[in-house]
């Protein structure tokens, strides 16, 4: 049986929210001496920011000699100055998660791991807001970084300016980049650019200057009402409505008096938090939140998430038989999917499927299935089961997940979330080994493609699927349908593979690295809410490459916007897309190229599409 590569799925999910999580792992906390945990903590020394003049004098240095400590200069000038003062060897030592610092410049060690110093991580050497560090020293959160941690490490010689990784969560860069520069594989200017990005982030967040409004943040700010409400809102926005037959949902709170709340996640606590999370303020379980709407009869249905036997199913059926509505909260948790714990299949574990079927069969009232997971689940049985009126996917919704689920079920919130990945049929796991890394299909071995970009087979639910309690109509109001790019004498036409019998344009493509990439296309879509409930719509925009191109992606997301539209109202949504970023394809040699010819912009699930022509002239 092929194993599902959880790590890949995990990286996708996390990177969408916080990049740093994608490569976070438990690392020993005691092996680092950091500004924040050693160099500048209340118990270590008395310094909380790098450019404290007293700190410099304690090091025998004069802070005024270092322009990067001069607050009157712009951040980019200060960052450039710092980088310029380092030798190549010093530079490469700052490219891993454990920055070594540069003592002669007064630059301390720094640990980027696990969201650095923001104070809420439950893993890694960041700040915990414990007795040692009662308030934040600064708030470094990685931005301006694209790429996927360990997956990208192998691409040390990054060919495209569109794909760069400024920091390696590991030791690969510090160990090998100096050699790569000496061999001419990496330009020192690229390292300078990466370090400059990193130091601008740290400057903006107060690491060098101790920005007072950041330094004053502490434990009290984490669980404020505003932030607790944000947790609830994030969980609501992330909820995806997968099935809703005959408007099963929302339930009418006036009519439903008794609820059967069933399943191994019905009273979920820690499971809602997932991993690489912060320490929650106060968890509200689905059971807690649903109890506000009626008399609740809770039956767990399974002994544990793996649901190894059916001994608890019968009591759950009895509860469903009597209740006005039945809510089953099932799925998986970290005992089944986690880093270093790949799933064996895409099904619900053990007797969960049987629990859901039997409870649905027995139920008197409407049946709602709520699922927790990060990866996709083959729940085709529930999708096709007429007794199951509605299905919701909650992901791992966080501490206020229970409230969000109840808000959606009883119509206090109209869901608008969409799946961030394809939910494959279980047979997908047998079609290719987890060791096969190409995203493209491997025809010679019969392997299908990976992700919505390359997989064209049938699915349980496709990427970006998600329903609402209302309906939206799209109208294209305006669109730029062509772009003319004049090539200078250094910009050359580049050959790309077309399928036999396809029309090949005279200048098939130009490499993105050779281009200025200033061209933009724009268009405007009107989103009308034609139903009778207010709601949010996520407008997803894809591009499709020209017909006949060999082995390119089927489509790719190039933009999305979430808009709230009141019932009966409409909103205009404008997109401005960079031509290189939006219409490029990656060829067999891993070059990003812009093909000429007829591309297609697709809005939503093929609701609207229009051509965009790319012309090159010299
Ligand atoms: C920090 O400051 C306190 C009080 O001013 C002083 O007693 C202590 O020695 C200082 N610690 C260090 C490491 O300088
Ligand atoms: C729900 O879980 C909480 C926390 O684990 C526990 O204290 C509580 O007793 C559970 N509720 C029921 C009804 O089992
Ligand atoms: C069924 O599972 C429950 C909970 O895990 C366990 O306590 C019980 O002993 C199991 N029963 C049988 C017959 O294996
Ligand atoms: C779907 O992809 C496979 C490769 O996985 C390819 O052989 C097949 O022709 C494609 N089918 C369609 C209809 O595009
Ligand atoms: C929505 O659009 C579809 C097709 O684009 C059309 O058939 C339908 O009448 C529209 N509905 C409303 C209420 O405008």
From TrEMBL:
Any one GO molecular function term: xylan 1,4-beta-xylosidase activity
Protein name: Fibronectin type III-like domain-containing protein
One Pfam family recorded for the sequence: Fn3-like
One record GO biological process: arabinan catabolic process
Fibronectin type III-like domain span: 537-607
Keywords, ordered alphabetically: Glycosidase, Hydrolase, Signal
Domain of life: Eukaryota
Family matches, as InterPro entries: BXL (IPR044993), Fn3-like (IPR026891), GH (IPR017853), Glyco_hydro_3_C (IPR002772), Glyco_hydro_3_C_sf (IPR036881), Glyco_hydro_3_N_sf (IPR036962), Ig-like_fold (IPR013783)
Range of residues in the leader sequence: 1-24
Alphabetized Gene3D superfamilies for the sequence: Glycoside hydrolase family 3 C-terminal domain, Glycoside hydrolase, family 3, N-terminal domain, Immunoglobulins
């Amino acid at each position: 049986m092929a194993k599902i590569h959880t790590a890949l799925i995990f990286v996708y999910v996390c990177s969408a929210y916080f990049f740093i999580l994608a490569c976070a792992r438990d690392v020993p906390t005691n092996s680092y001496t950091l500004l924040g945990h050693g160099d500048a903590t209340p118990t270590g020394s008395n310094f909380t920011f790098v450019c404290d003049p007293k700190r410099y004098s304690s090091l025998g240095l004069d802070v005024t000699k270092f322009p990067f400590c001069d607050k009157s200069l712009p951040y980019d000038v200060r960052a450039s100055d710092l980088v310029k003062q380092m030798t190549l060897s010093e530079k490469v030592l700052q490219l891993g998660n454990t920055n070594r610092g540069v003592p002669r410049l007064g630059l301390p060690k720094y640990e980027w791991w696990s969201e650095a110093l923001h104070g809420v991580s439950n893993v890694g050497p960041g700040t915990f807001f414990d007795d040692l560090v009662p308030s934040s020293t600064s708030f470094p959160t990685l931005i301006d970084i694209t790429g996927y941690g360990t997956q990208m490490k192998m691409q040390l010689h990054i060919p495209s300016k569109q794909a760069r990784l400024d920091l390696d969560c590991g030791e690969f860069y510090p160990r090998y980049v100096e050699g790569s520069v000496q061999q001419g594989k990496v330009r020192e200017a690229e390292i300078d650019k990466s370090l400059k990005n990193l130091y601008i982030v740290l400057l903006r967040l107060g690491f060098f200057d101790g920005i007072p409004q950041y330094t004053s943040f502490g434990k009290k700010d984490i669980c404020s009402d505003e932030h607790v409400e944000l947790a609830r809102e994030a969980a609501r926005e992330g909820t995806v409505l997968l099935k809703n037959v005959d408007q099963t949902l929302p339930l009418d709170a006036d009519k439903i008096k008794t609820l059967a709340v069933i399943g191994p996640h019905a009273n979920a606590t820690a499971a809602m938090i997932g991993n690489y999370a912060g320490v929650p303020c106060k968890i509200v379980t689905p059971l807690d939140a649903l109890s506000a709407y009626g008399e609740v009869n809770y039956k767990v249905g399974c002994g544990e998430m793996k649901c190894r036997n059916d001994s608890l199913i019968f009591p759950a059926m009895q509860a469903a038989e009597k209740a006005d509505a039945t809510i089953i909260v099932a799925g998986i948790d970290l005992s089944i999917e986690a880093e270093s714990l790949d799933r064996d299949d895409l099904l619900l574990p053990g007797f969960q499927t049987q629990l859901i079927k039997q409870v649905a069969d027995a139920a008197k009232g409407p049946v709602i299935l709520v699922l927790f997971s990060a990866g996709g689940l083959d729940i085709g049985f529930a999708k096709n089961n007429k007794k199951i009126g509605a299905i919701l996917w909650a992901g791992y919704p966080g501490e206020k997940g229970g409230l969000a689920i109840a808000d959606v079920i009883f119509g206090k919130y109209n869901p608008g979330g969409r799946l961030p990945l394809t939910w494959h049929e279980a047979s997908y796991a047998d079609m290719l080994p987890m060791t096969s890394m190409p995203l493209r299909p491997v025809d010679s071995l019969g392997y299908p493609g990976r992700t919505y970009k390359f997989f064209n087979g049938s699915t349980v639910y496709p990427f970006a699927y998600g329903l609402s309690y209302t309906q939206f109509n799209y109208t294209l109001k305006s669109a730029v349908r062509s772009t003319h790019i004049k090539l200078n004498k250094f910009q050359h036409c580049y050959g790309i593979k077309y399928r036999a019998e396809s029309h090949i344009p005279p200048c098939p493509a130009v490499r993105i690295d050779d281009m200025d990439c200033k061209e933009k296309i724009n268009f405007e879509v009107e989103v009308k809410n034609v139903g009778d409930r207010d709601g949010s719509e996520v407008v997803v925009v894809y591009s499709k490459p020209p017909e006949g191109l060999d082995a390119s992606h089927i489509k790719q997301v190039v933009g999305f916007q979430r808009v709230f539209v009141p019932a009966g109202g409409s909103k205009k949504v404008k997109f401005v897309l960079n031509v290189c970023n939006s219409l490029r394809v990656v060829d067999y040699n891993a070059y990003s190229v812009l093909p000429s010819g007829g591309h297609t912009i697709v809005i939503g699930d093929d609701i609207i599409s229009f051509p965009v022509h790319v012309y090159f002239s010299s």
